[in-house]
Amino acid sequence: MKRLSLFPKIFIWTISILLALVAVAHLSIYLVFPHFYLNDRQADLSHKADAMVQNLAEVEEAEVETALKSTLRTRALQPLCNLKARAIPRL
Question: Which residues of 27-65 are buried (b: 16+ CB within 10 A; e: fewer)?
Answer without folding.
Answer: eeeeeeeeeeeeeeeeeeeeebeeebeeeeeeeeeeeee
